[in-house]
Design a protein that fits this description.
Strand 4, helix 4 and strand 5 form a beta-alpha-beta unit. The protein contains 5 helices and 5 strands, in the order E-H-E-H-E-H-E-H-E-H. It has 105 residues and is α/β, with parallel strands linked by helices. 36% of the residues are buried. This is Rhodanese-like domain-containing protein. GO terms for molecular function: thiosulfate-cyanide sulfurtransferase activity. InterPro entries: GlpE_sulfurtransferase, Rhodanese-like_dom, Rhodanese-like_dom_sf, Thiosulphate_STrfase_CS.
């Protein structure tokens, strides 16, 4: 399982990246990285078919802990999964744009 520093993720960020947010719906609604799709960690094993194959998948959570578990789940299933260090809180703390609400993309 790979990890990526948040600043590096921000540098390569674009709208067409595959970003999976593994937090809970209430956390996601409070603010998430634009373009991130919500699949809570507890649902990821049963919903991994919703994640595109053949492209890097950036997994993000609040601080970087759940994203590591989520990236491991996906990597074990054959995905090119990368856990984003520092998570959404690091993104928000840097003043980078976020989307609020429950619309998943």
């Amino acid at each position: 399982m790979k990890t990526m520093p948040l600043i590096e993720f921000h540098d390569l960020y674009r709208d067409d990246l595959t970003i999976v947010d593994v937090r809970e719906p209430s956390e996601y609604a409070q603010g998430h990285v634009p373009g991130a799709v919500l699949i809570p960690l507890g649902q990821l094993p049963n919903r991994k078919a919703e994640v595109p194959v053949g492209v890097p998948v950036y997994v993000i959570c609040r601080s970087g802990n759940r994203s590591k578990v989520g990236a491991e789940v996906l990597a074990y299933a054959g995905y090119d999964a990368v856990s984003v260090d520092e998570g959404t809180m690091g993104w928000i703390n840097r003043g980078w744009p976020v989307v609020t609400g429950t619309d998943v993309k």
